[in-house]
Amino acid sequence: MRQALITVRGVVQGVGFRPFVYAEAVRLGLSGTVKNLGSEVEIRVAGDRIDDLVVSLRRGPPLARIDSVALGPLDGPVPEGFRILPSAEGARTGLVPPDIASCDRCLADIDDPSSRYSGYWATSCVDCGPRYSIIRDLPYDRPRTSMDLFPLCGDCGAEFTDPGSRRHHAQTIACPVCGPRLSLYDADGRDLSPVDPIARAAELLDGGGIVAIKGVGGFHIACIEETAVRLKERLGRPEQPLAVMARPDTVESMAVLDETDRAALFSRERPIVVLEKRDPTAHEGVSNLHTIGVMLPYTGLHHLLFRRLAHTMLVMTSANAPGYPMVTGLERAVRVLSGIADAYLAHDRRIVNRCDDSVVRAGHLIRLSRGYAPLRTSIPLGPRCLLGVGPELSANATIYRDGHAVTSPHVGNVRNPETLAYLVETIEKLGDWLGARYDAVIHDLHPQFLSTRYARELASELGVPAIPVQHHRAHIASVTQEPCVGIAIDGVGYGDDGAIWGGEIFAGKTSALTRVGHLEPVPMPGGDLATRYPERMLYGVLPEDRILELLGARGWPELERDVLARQTVRRINTPLTTSTGRLLDAAAALLGLCRERSYDGEPAMKLEAAAARGRAEEWPLQFRTEGGATVLSTRALMGELADRALRNGGRPVVADLAASFQANLARGIALIAIGAARDLDLDRAALSGGVAINTAIRGTIAETCRAAGLDCLTNRRLPLGDGCISFGQCVIGAALLE
Ligand SMILES: [Zn+2]
Ligand SMILES: [Zn+2]
Known about the structure:
Strand content: 15-25%
Radius of gyration: 27 Å
Number of helices: 23
Structural class: alpha/beta
Largest sheet: 11 strands, mixed
Bound molecules: zinc ion
Number of strands: 31
Distance between the termini: 48 Å
């Protein structure tokens, strides 16, 4: 009989790994023990079929991510039978898994009148339920989670220790007798017990009420579609599209799904999936774009709520202000949502780590959060431990250690002390779980960002270097570590020259990405005002009398037009930008699609929605060389759009113009990249940035590159927008340190 000491590393906590080992060992007639060591699992084993066990371990249970299975010699006796031992502290190199949607078997338990879980909203097992959101520390055992306040009843205790149960060692096991409780509260936060909370909440919702619901990672605000306009008014965001949660059997009737969408929608991560509406004008109250964000119920609570609801769809939006951290506690929810929510459906399981819903579109992540994060990426970045603190907007953080980068869930816009504190808290927790001892801290090039200041202070405290990395180079490095032509199309990022970049083409290796092309720098009259009022941006791109006339026709007083013209000529509070996002804003303004931006990305999203119904035609493009870089003339492109849009006689078709503008801009950007690739003998393009979320623009760039024999890579597991920056910062930081 052989003996062995087996160490398994990876995401092996909270995934039912020990019960899995137990079941396999018993099946293979092996004796021994299995034990959690923080972020690895140690197995002491004796028997003839150890090699078969190793094969099983490499596969692992469904939620596990196995990095390595190491086999070593074992001295000393191994006890008879097989046992799961209590956890011990050990090496911290792994990570807890994300929160996972309720599995079908748990939902069946909830629906089974004879089950002791019948009707219980917090039913879970080793394959499903909350994880990241409830964990205080590793190893992952109930006392180190917010389930510690709910001691197991006799039945749950028996199931927890029963090797035959799928809740064997399920740390989240709970039932109506011993588990967390749900209550309904009125608008002032008064407990309405003993009403049936779910039945009454469903009644309120069906009747047009607005109910805040405590979910896995924070509070949502929910209402039926008919109430959406009132909700948006109460939130002060009348234009913003909101996500919905829909009964699975109703999604096909409202949106067009392909296999990729379907897979994402029904995945255990259960993100919001941005889908194309079947009828672009339907569900206008929820989303006035051609798309709608849809997610399926992902907890027992959602499941039970939809069983009671007469409606098949609920608007579901995070209860926080955009860019701010999720609201997790009832008291705070009642304060923040005063005058908005009519009632609160909340439970007493504390949310330790907040986690927003993830967002996916056409198989690409837009927001990395619940279900996916913390995201672990195997990547060889060398021996040093690194921290990337991310950008300012849509920020998160990445920690690299020992061949793995771990990216945190979405944090928000780090523009205020509250969100900065949340970023720091997230970094400190992840760093502690990973046993990180940073050798360098990497931050954005922008000297004034709160995250830059934090990174510098932390680095000086630790006596390690603080490394600045330019925003758009981080985008490219998040796609590939190989030499490439990088295409970063984005809102705004601080450039090498202090200007506002955002339409950049680079070439070279990760540590030395040279700017070989960009969009034409144009003034942003009034700085941030040009972001809020895209007609200002339009005049920045095309400072012509006919634009002033257009503004006059739209009601701009002569005085304001004079100020705008003088401000632009004299460059008073008028920085230069190469931003792709701002250029799209200007095009939306020209076509009359958006005059004031009321949420992030609104003008460009409205341009995309208009373009979705249009047919693109090819327009002439103009390029020039400036300081060794190829520049696409966006003034010429905007001039083409203006010629067609303002032409007398014959109504120009806005949809076709929007589609043409997008397509020609995308083609121009791709042509610069193709030229650079030929000059430098590169065969790979890397595309990233918030504008790449636009499927038409991304598609045109990728097709144009491929037609020229250039492979075009984009972000997949990391967001296309700024959620990939902290990861890219680590990649470039590691390359610079080498
Ligand atoms: Zn389950
Ligand atoms: Zn119980």
